[in-house]
């Protein structure tokens, strides 16, 4: 295979990955955001899930969107590692959202208990995780981005953080190094 054919194949496969992330994984994230309990911390799902899209989208032109990816990695790491505790904040937001909708007699609650709604909410996180597992990636940075979303959806915050920290180390080496890593293409991966 000639170098131009490899680059063309890479561009096609990377764009397919970007489009695939905008499919079911994006829809699963939106279902989390639209859940009555979902306000407050689901933006973390949005930004982590978007990483694979940004890295792959029109790679020959955008070179992995260094600035956008760097911003998303840094802010989601801050959110996940904040001193207050991401999981603590998540659970408090769920309880507060539930109490608010109960006080407002909001029909979205539909007489369900907090535990029922929490269970439904986290089933949506599980679906988000599962949707991201189906994304075919072609290099290590795409894998780490995908795996961060998978682990976040599973509520394995420690593993999500480790994947994001790997990406931060790559980004910290500069735009050129990041573009080199994000542009690697291993079709068999």
Keywords summarizing the entry:
mainly alpha; single chain
Structure, described:
By secondary structure, the chain is mostly helical. It has one domain. It contains eleven helices and no strands. The longest helix has 20 residues, at 114-133. The chain is elongated.
Layout of helices and strands, plus pairs?
Layout: H1 3-21, H2 24-34, H3 42-49, H4 51-56, H5 59-62, H6 66-81, H7 86-103, H8 114-133, H9 140-153, H10 157-172, H11 175-182
Helix pairs in contact: 2-3, 2-8, 6-10, 8-9, 9-10
Write down the oligomeric state.
Answer: single chain
Shape: elongated
**Fraction of residues in β-strands:** under 5%
Question: What are the secondary-structure elements, in order, as H or E?
Answer: HHHHHHHHHHH
Structure summary, number of beta strands = 0
Average predicted local confidence, pLDDT: 93
How would you characterize the largest beta sheet?
Answer: none
Q: What is the number of independent domains? A: 1
Helical fraction: over 70%
Our measurement of the CA-to-CA distance between the termini, rounded to an integer number of angstroms, reads 18 Å
* Number of discrete helical segments: 11
The SS-based structural class is mainly alpha
Low-pLDDT windows of residues: none
Query: What radius of gyration results from the CA coordinates?
Result: 18 Å
């Amino acid at each position: 295979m000639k170098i131009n054919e490899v680059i063309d194949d890479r561009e096609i496969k990377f764009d397919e990955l970007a489009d695939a992330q905008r499919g079911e994984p994006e829809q699963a994230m939106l279902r989390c955001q639209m859940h009555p309990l979902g306000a407050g911390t689901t933006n973390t799902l949005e930004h982590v899930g978007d990483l694979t899209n940004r890295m792959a989208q029109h790679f020959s032109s955008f070179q992995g969107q260094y600035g956008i990816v760097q911003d998303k990695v840094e802010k989601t790491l801050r959110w996940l590692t904040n001193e207050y505790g991401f999981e603590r904040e998540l659970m408090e937001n769920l309880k507060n959202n539930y109490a608010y909708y109960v006080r407002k007699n909001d029909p979205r609650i539909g007489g369900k208990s907090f535990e029922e709604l929490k269970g439904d909410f986290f089933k949506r996180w599980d679906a988000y995780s599962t949707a991201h597992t189906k994304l075919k990636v072609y290099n290590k940075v795409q894998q780490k981005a995908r795996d961060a979303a998978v682990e976040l959806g599973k509520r394995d915050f420690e593993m999500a953080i480790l994947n994001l920290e790997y990406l931060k180390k790559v980004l910290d080496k500069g735009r050129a190094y990041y573009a080199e890593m994000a542009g690697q293409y291993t079709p068999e991966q």
